[in-house]
Design brief:
By secondary structure, the chain is an alpha+beta fold. It contains 14 helices and nine strands. Strands 1, 5, 6, 7 and 8 form a five-stranded mixed β-sheet that branches. The longest helix is centred in the N-terminal third of the chain and has 16 residues. It is globular and about 75 Å long.
C-alpha cells in the first residue's frame, strides 16, 4: 500500500541511529524493548548501554542476583519490568539453552512480553509479519484515518490492531514497524506535529479537518489514589541506619526502603510518635522536608515525608552509612539519600 511505502521511504532518510537497530540478536532487541516500555529513548538509552555492558549475554543476566539487576534498573521506574526481565532471562538461559523463541506466538508466552514486544522481536529478528501497536502507532493511524474510537478501549485496540496488520509491508515488516513508530516519535508527535513537512499531510484526515489536537481519543483514567508515606530515617551515634526489603507485591517489590508508616492523612511529629514502638528510646525527631514530596505513579500519588530519628538504640539489624549505595531503592528514596548526604555523619 502507498502509506506503507511512504512511511518506509521517510524512515530510511530520517531514522535515528540507535544501537539496537544495528543488530538482529533477539537478546539485545528484547532488552531494548523491555527497557523502553513506558520510557522515552533519551531516558532508556543509558540504561540499555549499562545492561549490555554489565550483562553482554542472556546467560550473564540470568546468573546475576536479582538485587543487582534492580540496582542497575534504579531510577527507571515500573520495577516489575526488571523482575520480569530477570525471570525471563533465567528461563531462556536455563530452560531454552539461551535460544529465544523465533515466532510471535511463542514469544508471547514469555513473562513480561505482551503483544507489542512479541511483535517487535518477531519482526525485527525473524522477519515475521507481526504488526506493532504502541502509542506512536495509535496516534499516526488515528490522525491519518480519522478514527475516534478510544485507543484504550477493547474495541479500539482491536480496530487499530486489525488496521495496522492490514497495512504492514508483508515483504519488509521490520522496516515498516520501525518506520511507523519513528514517524510518530519524530514527525507526528503528540504536541505540535510537524505538519508542514509531513509527506502524509495532503491525505491526513486530522490535518484536513483541523482535528490534530483531538486525535487520538483516549477515555479518562480513574483518579489516582492518594497515599501518605512517612519514612523513618533512623540515625544512630555509630553511623548506622535501618533499611527494610519491601517483599509484599505491588510497587517497589524487592526494593529497599526506610521503615515505613502509611497513614490515612498527613501527620505531625506528635502524631508520628504514637505510631512508633519504643518511642522512649528516641533522642530527637525532625522532619527533613517541610512540604511532602509528591511522587506520582500511574495509579497513585504518594505524599512522602522523611522523618530523621536520632537514637542510640536501633530496634533491629542495621546498615552502615557507607553501605547504603549498595542497595536498590526507589527513586524517591535515592533522591532523599543524595539530598541528606549521609557522609556528613561519618
Amino acid at each position: 500500500m502507498q502509506l506503507s511505502k511512504t512511511l518506509i521511504s521517510w524512515y530510511l532518510v530520517n531514522k535515528r541511529e540507535l544501537p539496537w537497530r544495528n543488530t538482529q540478536n533477539p537478546y539485545f532487541i528484547w532488552l531494548s524493548e523491555i527497557i523502553l516500555q513506558q520510557t522515552q529513548i533519551k531516558q532508556g538509552l543509558p540504561y540499555y548501554e549499562a545492561f549490555v555492558s554489565q550483562y553482554p549475554t542472556v546467560f550473564h543476566l540470568a546468573k546475576a542476583p536479582e538485587e543487582a539487576v534492580l540496582k542497575l534498573w534504579q531510577g527507571l521506574g515500573y520495577y516489575s519490568r526488571a523482575r520480569n526481565l530477570h525471570a525471563t532471562a533465567k528461563y531462556i538461559a536455563f530452560h531454552l539453552n539461551g535460544q529465544f523463541p523465533e515466532n510471535y506466538k511463542e514469544l508471547l508466552k514469555l513473562k513480561g512480553v505482551g503483544d507489542y514486544t512479541a511483535s517487535a522481536i518477531a519482526s525485527f529478528c525473524f522477519n515475521e509479519v507481526a504488526a506493532v501497536l504502541d502509542g506512536n502507532v495509535f496516534r499516526v493511524l488515528a490522525r491519518y484515518y480519522g478514527i475516534h474510537t478510544p485507543i484504550n478501549s477493547t474495541e479500539g485496540k482491536k480496530t487499530f490492531k486489525a488496521l495496522v496488520s492490514d497495512l504492514i509491508d508483508k515483504k519488509n515488516p521490520a522496516d515498516f514497524n520501525q518506520a511507523i513508530m519513528e514517524f510518530g516519535a519524530l514527525q507526528c508527535t503528540p504536541n505540535k506535529p510537524d505538519c508542514p513537512t509531513c509527506p502524509l499531510a495532503s491525505s491526513c484526515y486530522a490535518h484536513r479537518k483541523n482535528e490534530i489536537n483531538q486525535l487520538p481519543v483516549k477515555t479518562k483514567a480513574r483518579k489516582p489514589a492518594i497515599k501518605f508515606f512517612n519514612f523513618l530515617v533512623y540515625i544512630s551515634d555509630v553511623n548506622t541506619t535501618i533499611l527494610e526489603k519491601r517483599e509484599q507485591k505491588g510497587i517497589w517489590q524487592n526494593l529497599y526502603q526506610f521503615p515505613l508508616i502509611e497513614t490515612p492523612k498527613a501527620i505531625n511529629k506528635h502524631e508520628l510518635l504514637n505510631y512508633i514502638a519504643n518511642a522512649q528510646d528516641i533522642q530527637e525527631v525532625s522532619l527533613f522536608n517541610a512540604n511532602p514530596i509528591v511522587h506520582k505513579l500511574s495509579h497513585q500519588h504518594l505524599y512522602t515525608k522523611f522523618w530523621i530519628i536520632k537514637t542510640n538504640k536501633l530496634p533491629q539489624p542495621t546498615v552502615p552509612f557507607a553501605d547504603l549505595e549498595k542497595y536498590a531503592v526507589p527513586i524517591v528514596i535515592k533522591n532523599f539519600m543524595d539530598a541528606y548526604n549521609f557522609e556528613v555523619e561519618i
